[in-house]
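Input:
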Amino acid sequence: MIVQTLRHTGWMIVRQARNLMREPIWIAMMVIQPLIWLLLYGQLFSRVPQLRGSASTYIEFLTPGIVCMNAFFGGMWSGMAMISDLDRHVIDRFLASPASRVAIVLSQVVRAGITAVLQALLLLAIGYALGVRVHGGAAGWLLVVAASALLAMVFAGFSHGIALLMRREASMIATANFVGLPLMFLSTILLTQERMPGWIRSVSRFNPVNWGVEAARNAVVVGGEWWTSGQFLLFLLAAAAVTTGFATWSFRAYQRSI
Amino acid sequence: MDAIVSEELRKRYRTVQALDGVSFAVRDGEVFGLLGPNGAGKSTTVRVLTTLTRADSGRAFVAGQDVAAHPARVRRAIGYVAQDSGVDWEATGRENLLLQGRIHGMSGASLRARVEELLDLVGLKEAADRVARGYSGGMKRRLDIAIGLVHKPKVLFLDEPTTGLDPEARAAMWVEVERLARAESLTILLTTHYLEEADRLAERVAIVSKGKVVVEGTPEQLKRDLRGESVSVELAEQNGRAADAERIVASIGSEVKVDGQLLRARVPNGAQAIPVILGALDDAGIAVASVTTARPSLDDVYLHYTGRDFASEDEAGR
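Output:
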């Protein structure tokens, strides 16, 4: 049973990845967008030394933030793929076959995580070229990658839950914007906690985006605080389990509605 | 044994009673047509039988398995070609087929061989490695059917296989389905709202109206049950023998009408009645110019059993 679920998940991931690879624009956006964020924000705030906390340059402060921002936006929008599969009746086709129900949802969530890992590696490499050194070394790289994968999966679970409940592109776009931007600004992606108003600082503690950003920043800027970072990763793992559970529940609701 | 048994299926969607006691049986190896206008409950019936949705009450068995108790077993035994194409547009025809085969537990050389065989069978060999987005409607439909057949199912569900196709593609699809039924020795449940499609493809049909099966039988039976066919006999000469002819024809058929040299009568079976009529007229020395039979269509059958005109109800159901 578990073996079959994993096998089906694997094939579904291959299908999604292959389909995405056939969209040249998607690949271009996947590479160019995080790059633009990194360079644009890096320039915009580079003259404001208070923002970056203990980091030696703003770009060093920003790089782990952009990695996480990218992962969480990627996850947030990943439900669009589910809506397209629903519209094309691919999901119904799978449902009338022995395809693992869990795999249909899980594959989308894992695919979002894999995409985030690739983008994280790309951003770290670009950061390296711009002089950003990961002070945590190899373990630091691993931690950044893990944080971005988990963050993408947290929001992919949420996104697919919404997609399966609403089943309409317009509703999906509205939700992603409505939830996405506030979460970004209620986090330390762009500036350090000390520079935030008190209430935002309090709220940000409960923001999963912030858990990822803090963990990744510890790995890049501090090169330590492993215990704290590990805790954040555990929170993210728990959150990913919850949102994936939500997506699975939505999928059952969809099945009942057919 | 019956490949599909549906007993008193009922299903309600909010305010709509989609199924109101659907019962019918499909024999092993036959092509069975569920015929009815849009909104009659055909697709809902298919969704229950393919385990996509659960009936509120009633029972159904597909390939010997209870759809509610053992949906996983049913899914392994069936192929489902939905009303709306389930083709993955960004994948090639071959990739679509390979994935479906893997889902059904196939792999390796046997899967590849089966995929080749099917691509050949539905005429998509040339297009096999092109992304399905660029396929025509007819090609997507043929790929849908191939997807439904990958694992050599016992029972194939074809939900409105030709809806949305132009007349040429529809005729081609009919030939295709006839060929598949023979080549793959399948039981096929076909739903359609085209009377001529059911007439052409199905060995037996059930007419569905407002969530119920109103009548079930071979198209021939159903038409014959409408008290047969009409025979028209045109006499060769106008020599006052029409009255004799009328008497002779009346002894064989019923409801005889005379209109000059033309006689019309209803007979149970035109093919059997014509030689008898011609023989009797010949014995009496009455020359005949032509004989034609007009058979009641499924249109007439539909009207007879539902009291409604098929075309107008189909419009209303949209």
